[in-house]
Amino acid sequence: MHKNKENRISNPDNLSHNVYNDSDFARLYANRIEYNSHNALYERPAMLSLLPEVRDKKVLDAGCGPGVLTSILQDKGADVTAIDYSDEMIRLTKERTEGKVKTINANLNFPLDFLMDNEFDIVVSSLTIHYIRDLRSLFSEFNRVLKINGELIVSTHHPFLDYSLHSDGNYFETELLKDDWSAYNIEMEFYRRPLSELFNLFKEADFRITELSEPQPVKECEINYPDTFKTLSSQPWFIFFKAIKER
Ligand SMILES: C[S@@+](CC[C@H](N)C(=O)[O-])C[C@H]1O[C@@H](n2cnc3c(N)ncnc32)[C@H](O)[C@@H]1O
């Protein structure tokens, strides 16, 4: 794994994850996450297990990617709005949901002023917040668009994992790090925040965390990907927060 000594947080506007706009990458990503270990047999089941009943609920999927979770939510009867800043991801989401879900091409680093106050019952965001520079502002926007008692469910890289694999800096600082995504032949940049910082960001945005999950992969992972199963069962990879809007 690549270790990045440089902390480039002062120059955050040209991150490598603009690669999500590349149509070849987006298609490859979309195909992989449907069946792979980390998304299909670890992240997604954990995310689904944290969801409340979504039927007839207004749900915002922030950073929808190719729309895999979006379409599951749609199938479960939710009224979903899906946001991503990648044209290609939005196109794939529209394709997957047969154009029946509201999609918005927007950058989560900016105010979501195209969404109304108290519009949603649930906000979900899978594996996206580590790309966001100003998470305080985004969480404040999530709070604004949620109804009182609405729920925010977020998954992200586990900070201990990112620290041990990719950082040789100070755990207690927010860092911009790089990971070598060799399966895609790219280096992906992302932010790592200490756990206490993540907790405080929820709190400052008037969310109360009701569940924190460091999940295990599902049984099928052991059958299909025994080596990865061993890794994911013995070290945290992703972390999940479920939080409620208190005010
Ligand atoms: C790792 S993918 C996760 C996609 C999807 N949630 C899933 O779990 O399959 C991260 C997604 O976040 C999107 N993204 C990253 N930064 C973003 C930003 N600033 N605004 C909107 N979307 C962003 C990317 O385009 C990509 O689709």
Structural notes for this entry:
This protein is an alpha/beta fold. The protein has a single domain, classed as 3-Layer(aba) Sandwich (Rossmann fold). It has nine helices and nine strands. Strands 3-2-1-4-5-9-8 form a seven-stranded mixed sheet, with helices on both faces. It has a two-stranded antiparallel sheet with strand order 6-7. Strand 6 and strand 7 form a beta hairpin.
Give the integer mean of the pLDDT values: 92
> How would the global form be characterised?
globular
Kindly report the name of the CATH homologous superfamily. Vaccinia Virus protein VP39
Characterize the quaternary organization of these chains.
single chain
What's the number of helices? 9
Strand element count: 9
**What is the end-to-end distance?**
42 Å
Q: Kindly report the CATH topology.
A: Rossmann fold
With strands numbered from the N-terminus, the spatial order across the biggest sheet is: 3-2-1-4-5-9-8
CATH class: Alpha Beta
CATH architecture: 3-Layer(aba) Sandwich
Overall structural class, as computed from helix and strand content, comes to: alpha/beta
Which small compounds were modeled alongside the protein? Answer: S-adenosylmethionine
Topology:
Layout: H1 23-35, H2 39-50, E1 58-62, H3 68-75, E2 79-84, H4 87-96, E3 102-105, E4 120-126, H5 135-145, E5 146-157, H6 159-166, E6 175-181, E7 186-192, H7 195-204, E8 207-213, H8 219-224, H9 226-234, E9 238-245
The chain binds S-adenosylmethionine.
